[in-house]
TrEMBL record:
Protein family membership: Belongs to the AzlC family.
Alphabetical keyword list: Cell membrane, Membrane, Transmembrane, Transmembrane helix, Transport
GO terms of biological process kind: L-valine transmembrane transport
Membrane spanning residue stretches: 56-78, 132-155, 209-226
PANTHER family (alphabetical): INNER MEMBRANE PROTEIN YGAZ (PTHR34979:SF1)
Protein name listed in UniProt: Branched-chain amino acid transport protein AzlC
Lineage: Bacteria, Pseudomonadati, Pseudomonadota, Gammaproteobacteria, Enterobacterales
Compartments (UniProt record): Cell membrane
Length: 236
């Protein structure tokens, strides 16, 4: 395959996820306006942050009159998963210059990381090919997110409440999870995180989500370590 074909393949792989991402972005725009943000500030939040879960959480807290430090702390807590994603990308050994690394960080979201991780695990790619694929998945998602946010800002008041756009958030993450359930550590991590999140669902400021994520990652890592130890003993 030619190098740019990996960028195109990233575009193609991202397309099915855009159907779930668009209503998620629209809901983010609606939530921002309902929280009292001006259209300009609401759109800039998507341009600078591009994190629907934390944007909606922040909008909800602002609507409830929460203190600014609570809003900021919630943003940091929810978005801490991106530090884990960044560590994961470093293990995949993509090829970034200082400028492309900044661009990659700006467009990093759950869907982009999941697709890139799966591609790199199943295909023997060079560092350049991995990087092109990463940006191939990221670009259409970034564009759809900005357009969806703008639609939510403009058309939010006209959207009937019985459409329940918030369900798109669940669909987004389900569509990411199912293709990844192909090896033991990920299955263990997802199962443990799901069980823990069921018990920590009512925690304030979405802290239950963060806690369940940490416990799930820890369980998956522990399972992988045990499996590696067992295989080493079998080979010795």
């Amino acid at each position: 395959m030619k190098p740019m074909s990996h960028f195109v393949q990233g575009n193609k792989d991202a397309m099915p996820l855009l159907l779930g991402l668009l209503p998620f972005a629209v809901l983010t725009g609606v939530s921002a306006i309902q929280a009292g943000m001006t259209p300009w500030v609401a759109q800039m939040s998507s341009l600078l942050l591009m994190s629907g879960a934390s944007q909606i959480a922040a909008a909800t807290l602002m609507t409830a009159g929460a203190a600014p430090f609570v809003v900021i702390a919630t943003h940091i807590a929810i978005n801490f998963r991106y530090a884990i994603y960044s560590a994961g990308l470093s293990q995949l050994k993509l090829c970034f210059t200082p400028m492309t690394k900044l661009a990659a960080a700006q467009v990093l979201i759950d869907q982009t990381y999941a697709l890139t991780f799966l591609r790199c695990q199943t295909q023997p790619l060079s560092a350049k090919e991995k990087t092109l694929y990463y940006f191939g998945t990221a670009l259409p998602m970034w564009l759809v997110w900005q357009v969806g946010t703008a639609l939510g800002i403009i058309a939010g008041p006209l959207i009937p409440t019985n459409w329940h756009l918030e369900f798109a958030i669940t669909l987004c993450f389900i569509s990411l999870l199912i293709p990844m359930l192909k090896n033991g550590p990920i299955v263990v991590a997802a199962t443990v995180a799901g069980v823990v999140s069921a018990f920590s669902y009512g925690w304030p400021y979405n802290l239950g989500f963060l806690f369940s994520m940490f416990v799930g990652v820890l369980a998956g890592g522990l399972y992988r370590k045990v499996r590696w130890s067992q295989r080493s003993e079998e080979l010795s």
